[in-house]
Specification:
The chain is mainly beta. The protein has one domain. Helices cover about 5% and strands about 25% of the residues. The longest helix has 4 residues. The protein is globular and about 35 Å long. It starts with 10 loop residues before the first strand and ends in an 18-residue tail after the last strand. Bound molecules: FE2/S2 (inorganic) cluster (FES). The site of FE2/S2 (inorganic) cluster (FES) has 12 residues, from helix 1.
Length: about 80
């Protein structure tokens, strides 16, 4: 069974509209997106699924402590 991995730096990307599943366990090889690693590693953490209505710059939390998941709120630096 794997352990969740939390990193103190968000991922910034130019995101496209549509349904997204952002990794919340930190084990995905396709960060910030879920690749199913949480299931393969037996980690009891689900991805954050969201429907984005438009394209735009996004800052995706990787420490998973944000009060505004899946987006970074600066909690990694506190
Ligand atoms: S791979 Fe991390 S939540 Fe799915």
């Amino acid at each position: 069974m794997g352990e969740p991995k939390h990193v103190n730096a968000p991922i910034v990307l130019d995101e496209t509209a549509g349904k997204k599943a952002y990794c919340m366990c930190g084990l995905s090889e396709k960060l910030p997106y879920c690749d199913g690693a949480h299931s393969r590693e037996g980690v009891d953490i689900a991805p954050f699924v969201i429907e984005l209505s438009e394209d735009g710059k996004k800052v995706v939390c990787q420490c998973h402590r944000s009060a505004n998941l899946p987006w970074c709120d600066g909690s990694h630096s506190k």
